[in-house]
Each structure stands twice: as C-alpha cells, then as structure tokens.
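Protocol step 4 of 5: obtain the predicted structure for the target chain.
Materials: sequence only (see below). No template structures provided, no constraints applied. The aim of this step is simply to have a reference model before the mutagenesis design in step 5. Sequence pasted as it appears in the construct record:
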Amino acid sequence: MSQSRAHRPWVLIALVVPCCVSCVERRPVETLPEFETIDETRPSVIDDLVIIQQSDHSVTLGWHAPGDDGMDGTASVYELRYSYDSITVGTWTEASLVENISVPRSAGAEEFFTVNGLFPETTYYFAIRAFDEVGNRSRPSNVARTVTNPLDIQVEEFPLVEGATWTFSVHYKHPITQYEFDTTIILATSNVLLVDGRPVQAIWRWDDPPGNQSGTRTSVYLGDTLLFLPVFDDPFILRNLVFPLVVGSHWKVATEPGKRDSAFVAAREWLESERTGRIPVLRIEGELRIAGCISNSTWWVAPNVGLVRVKNRGRLHGCDRDYTWELIDYTIPGQ
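Step 4 output (structure tokens):
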C-alpha cells in the first residue's frame, strides 16, 4: 500500500488542493480604451522675426504665423521675450516675458506686435516661439536686434487729455519760513477751439489745500508750441515748451514787457519717481525774470507722463524763494 502511493504523487496534490478552479475569483472582462492619436507635432519655428519700426520707448516687430502642426492649422499662443543681451535656448527663461501678446492668426498670416515701455538709446534683443493646444512648443525664433531712438518728446506724447490730473508734493522754502503741501493740476478743458484738429486753448485748474490759493489758468497751444500756466504767481509750472523737445534745443519767450525767459533741453537722463519708478526723462534748464526777480529753474519731463519734477532757486535778495515739486500721482484718461 505504501509502495503504491509513492508512485502516485497526484493523490497528495488532490488532497491539499481539492479544487483550484473553484478558488479563482470571477471578474468581468474589462474593455480596453479606444486608441487615441497623440499630437506630438510642434508648430514650425518662426525664422523671419524682424524690426518693423521703433521709437524712443517702443519697438514694433513683424513675422509670419506658424501653424498648429508645422505650418498646418493655427497655433494657440505666442511667447515673446526680450533682453539686453542676445537670447539663446540656454538663456531663454532669463529674458523678460512680454505680457498680453496678440493671439496667433492662421498659418502664413502676417503678424505685428508693438512692445512698449522700453528705454531710449538702449540695445534690445527679441525672440519668439509658438505653442499648440496641447503644449507642444516650437524652437525659439531667430533673434531680432535693435537700438531704440534717442529720447525726443513729440507733442502727441505730451498729455493733452481732458480730465488729466497731476498731483505734486511741494516743498517751499523762504528765508523766514518754509512749508509743505500737495497740489493738483487738472486739465479741465482740452478742446475749446480746434485748428486742424488740434486744441488751441486749454483751461488748467490748480487746487492747493484749504486756506491756500486755488483758481484757473489758461494755457495756449498752437502749432508746435505749448504755453503752460502763467507764472506771475507762486508756485508756477513749466511753460513755453517748444516741440519736439530735443537735447540742445533752445528758446526764448516774453513773460513781461521788456523781459524774456530762456530755456534749453540740457540732457537725457534717468529719474526715480515715487509714482513712476525709474523712467527716462529730459532735463530742461531755464532762467526766469518775473516781477523784478531772477530765478533758475530745472524741469524734468517724461513722454506720456508730462512734468515729473521741478526745482527753482531765486538769485536776488527778496526773490530767494526755493521750492521743489515732486510728482506723487497722475491720471491720464485712456492710458
């Protein structure tokens, strides 16, 4: 008996595992997902990025739109960057990203975009790439290089917009007293009369704190000359600008019978303002002769902002009133 079992090992297996089939958990057969096409085709590389035009604070770029897949379809979004140094794949993320760039057009269409807020007389490098709807990105484009124009302020870059306001912090110093206050200049009317579509008269109003002076002043604009507030009262604002404002330009204008003011654009420079941050400006130097007083004044003017800072120093006894104006806020409707 024992000998016969030694030759039948399956008997032991049957005793240990009586029924392997009944032990298997029965599960429903899972349905395999349908086959999906994976988009791995990048938009084509933009290889014709060029500079179309430029100013002292902006550059307009042009290129032809790539497609979604190579040159087919329409890409989803652009990524445009600029830098002070040449842009490579390795330095791509170090370059500044341009916000709010236009949406791509269909493949092959001409594209244009203007980058604003640049500095004058500065070298810039630009490059661009495109993404499709699943995130495939093209290689960076060719690099377009340019140097922005010198800072020359045109009349259209000087704010002449009804409702524009400028608020200054004024520090006034006299031999026997000194005080500080804030004052606001308001462009109340900008289209009293139009000549060839341009305003020739504008009414400005300034308001000092209660107890100080307030009132209206008239500024006349004709051709390329802008006259600011009359300066027969303190404090006064910049006047007699002749556009375009270019370094080296010089002008004189009568302020009183037999008296003439002189002013000239002395330099382009950078200015740090509480309201605007670091911005490029033109520094204007002037000599004023009013009511028997002679004073030296310096004005700093920025394009699309206007007056940013004023410093004045009297030169004669009895006229030794010094003051500074610092821009602390401004609003230009439409900007």
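Step 4 remarks: Residues 10-16 form the longest helix (7 residues). The first strand starts at residue 50 and ends at 54.
Proceed to step 5.
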